From TrEMBL:
Basic residues composition-biased segments: 361-374
Region described as Disordered: 361-405
Protein name: tRNA dimethylallyltransferase
Protein keywords: ATP-binding, Cytoplasm, Metal-binding, Mitochondrion, Nucleotide-binding, Phosphoprotein, Transferase, Transit peptide, tRNA processing, Zinc, Zinc-finger
Annotated GO biological process: tRNA modification
UniProt domain Zinc finger double-stranded RNA binding: residue ranges: 340-364
Enzyme class, broadest EC rank: transferase
Coiled-coil blocks: none
Listed NCBIfam families: miaA (TIGR00174)
Subcellular location: Cytoplasm; Mitochondrion
Record EC number: 2.5.1.75
GO MF, one annotated term: zinc ion binding
Pfam family, any one: IPPT
Organism ancestry: Eukaryota, Metazoa, Chordata, Craniata, Vertebrata
């Protein structure tokens, strides 16, 4: 989100003063009204910058972030299609955006016909990924799954995609105890409010969003409008000055609490991504991950700064760092894209782990209990019918016997 101009506080952009300490790139250069700036556009611009930094004998540091965007810089995982985006407003929507307007099940059905392998890996509700796979096929004539197979089969490729673009890469993972992280994230939201978040929200809504809301064409799924922290204040922004002050205060507090909740949820998602994508995935194309504990900020120099500098310096010199990378048991047999259909709950589940979790969920067990109770009643009813029929046959036999001379 930091590539877009505006919403500097919400997207936690580095301050101009901090930017003078070290060169920063990819910040505030896309117009907020551009809704189809893609990961391909990001990768192309960032890759050129990385090459330029290397040419000047400097070390590029990717700070994240948005998971898929980081992956696009590490591996060959993307497919270029005909559509190209220029960071300017007023441009016609690309094919993926057009496809996303269709019904999710219709989209998934279309993908099933042209690329059944990819369709089996994607949930019908994940319209963005389904639309992207359809776009790849429409604009290249080649199934998306075929592109991915080709990338993984390249020399140095693996489960995550093609070979590493920069073989001498390392990852520094800053992590904290959950309680410390949650407390810090709540404080971050409070600090954002103190830094003028409300004024930023009002100004951005007035300049870029008010007209869209009035025309009932607001879209919180694309571009900067999907930023965590903007859509959470939707009710407050559209009713401010039009409702009692008490109601407005309640909506503001609701937005603040929603922002805190979504921020913590996203942080958990980021940590889960590191574990699943880097630590549990075997293969030659996964860079080493070095964990740095940041729960106690008073120990920053000892726990973070000094070991990070030692690790990076070792990599620059082509040596093995004294610190050991984080290791987790690889789950080789786990299929993260397996396709499961729970007819009981009328749901599609993607992934072995997700399927195992679903079968143990309260919702599934509740439906299972209801089904067993229904089956038990049907079985009992069938038994009564059978008994009645047997009795009728027996009575008929006795009657025949009594009538016999």
């Amino acid at each position: 989100m930091q590539v877009y101009k505006g919403l500097d506080i919400i997207t936690n952009k580095i301050s101009p003063q901090e930017q003078t300490l070290c060169g920063h790139h990819m910040i505030s250069f896309v117009d907020p009204l551009v809704s189809n700036y893609t990961v391909v556009d990001f990768r192309n611009k960032a890759a050129a910058l990385i090459e330029d930094i290397f040419a000047r004998e400097k070390i590029p540091i990717v700070v994240g972030g948005t998971n898929y965007y980081i992956e696009s810089l590490l591996w060959k995982v993307l497919v270029d299609t005909k559509e190209k985006t220029s960071p300017s407003p007023g441009r016609a929507a690309d094919r993926r955006v057009e496809l996303e307007q269709l019904d999710g099940r219709e989209l998934h059905c279309r993908l099933s016909h042209v690329d059944p392998e990819m369709a089996a890996k994607l949930h019908p509700h994940d319209k963005r990924k389904v639309a992207r796979s359809l776009q790849v096929f429409e604009e290249t004539g080649i199934p998306h799954s075929e592109f991915l197979h080709r990338q993984r089969e390249e020399e140095g490729g693996g489960p995550l995609g093609g070979p590493l673009k920069y073989p001498n890469s390392c990852i520094l993972w800053l992590y904290a105890d959950q309680a410390a992280l949650d407390e810090r994230l709540d404080k971050r939201v409070d600090d954002m409010m103190a830094a003028g978040l409300l004024e930023e929200l009002r100004d951005f809504h007035r300049r870029y969003n008010q007209e869209k809301v009035a025309e009932n064409c607001q879209d919180y799924q694309h571009g900067i409008f999907q930023s965590i922290g903007f859509k959470e204040f939707h009710e407050y922004l559209i009713t401010e000055g039009k409702c009692p002050q008490e109601t407005s205060a309640l909506l503001l507090e609701k937005g603040i609490q929603a922002l805190k909740l979504v921020t913590k949820r996203y942080a958990r998602k980021q940590n889960k991504w590191v574990r699943n994508r880097f630590l549990r995935r075997p293969g030659p194309n996964v860079p080493p991950v070095y964990g740095l504990q940041v729960s106690d900020l008073s120990q920053w120099d000892e726990d973070v700064l000094k070991p990070a500098l030692q690790i990076v310096e070792s990599f620059i010199q082509g040596q093995q760092p004294s610190a050991d990378p984080v290791k987790m048991e690889s789950e080789i047999n786990e299929d993260k894209r397996s396709h499961h259909v729970c007819e009981l709950c009328n749901r599609v589940i993607i992934g072995d782990r997700e399927w195992a979790a679903h079968t143990k969920s309260k919702s599934h067990l509740h439906h299972l209990k209801k089904r067993r109770k229904l089956d038990s009643k049907l079985s009992a009813a069938e038994s009564r019918v059978n008994v009645t029929e047997t009795q009728g046959e027996s009575e008929g036999t006795e009657n025949l016997g009594q009538d016999r001379p």
